[in-house]
Dihydroorotase (Microlunatus flavus), 432 residues
Amino acid sequence: MTQADDEQGRDVLVLGADLAGRGPADLLIRDGSFADPADARPDADRVDAAGLVALPGLVDLHTHLREPGREDAETVETGTRAAARGGYTAVLAMANTNPVTDTAEAAEHLLGVASRVGSAQVVPVGAVSKGLEGEELAELGLMARSAARTRVFSDDGHCVADARLMRRALEYVRAFDGVVAQHAQDPRLAGRDACCAEGELSGRLGLPGWPAVAEAGIVARDVQLAELTRSRLHVCHVSTAETVDVLRWAKQRGVEVTAEVTPHHLLLTVDELTGYDPTFKVNPPLRSGEDVAALRDALSDGTIDAVGTDHAPHARHDKEHAFVDAAFGMLGLETALAVVVETMVRPGALGWGDVATRMSSVPAHIARLPGQGRPLRVGEPANLVLVDPERRSVVDRDASLSLSRNNPWHGRDLPDPMVATWWGGRRTFTRS
Ligand SMILES: [Zn+2]
């Protein structure tokens, strides 16, 4: 009998955790939900959580699970185990699999796989365009009405570059309260071989550059299209100070725009590229220290609403190449909270309640997930993470639960806060 089976039907009493910065209290997990701790049965499993912080299960708006099509890099099973270890109870699975999630059948297939092997809720993201080709809208309405109840649509990996198609997608998703999540990058300004933020360093390293305007220009266009269509826009992985300025302007106008930042853009800069290590090749690219500071400020003041990992596992044979030929992307699920603690909580830019909003309740709301991001209250689903705010360790990529090893934090001393995760009352991670 596994630990998870063992816990079925048995009370779990979590004692004395600080509830997202609001002070210590007890929590009772019973039959998948939180119940009144005063009602705990005498044989309840007791978890001493004094000194730990309790957060609602984290929700990742931006995960690449690689299944179907690239099960050598990640599967639903391994990706959601990595998610649970990172404190996540739900992940939005991007559509750029093979086949692409651009039909109701594909979205429902992914749901079926996840229901058998998932250690977290898997929410299929629907493609905006058929085959991610940017020409013809995918079956947005059918995906929205399917069992997958798709609300987030994205061609992530590609930008919806055609303004007319973007406008039509925004108009379409409005009917079912959906949102278009844009990978903002003008392909005419960022060429196919671009692999480094454009600037003094890209010139010195001889790497083809991406100008910041390739991102901010698309975001400026899209927030105006969102205003025109009165629809919802979400900006994936914001990486530049210019984009932050555009988002501030749009929010002041009342445009329904939300945005996410990745952990790696909160800590790493383009200077990592001086060693030509392809682990640091990512799309959008790592930027300057000024950009990193602007992104932290924006996450702190709410201009950037959420953290999204852009967890992008790659098999060794796709990543271990000369820098210009290697695949884009890095792992993120297991270390996201660690990086947020390091960059935002320890310097005092976010409190634990803010972490709960930026990494759980706000992403759940953007994706319209009713059972996620809920407060730690009696009657709510028992999606819970316990974290130790003081613990640190040196990251070892070989200790990962992901199938891939493209971990940009390998060898780095970082917070190591994860203690345990429960998803719907089922324990999905326990620190050994
Ligand atoms: Zn992307």
Residues 34 and 378 are 5 Å apart (CA to CA). Residues 156-157, 183, 236-237 surround zinc ion (CB under 6 Å). The first helix runs from residue 3 to 7. The radius of gyration is 21 Å.
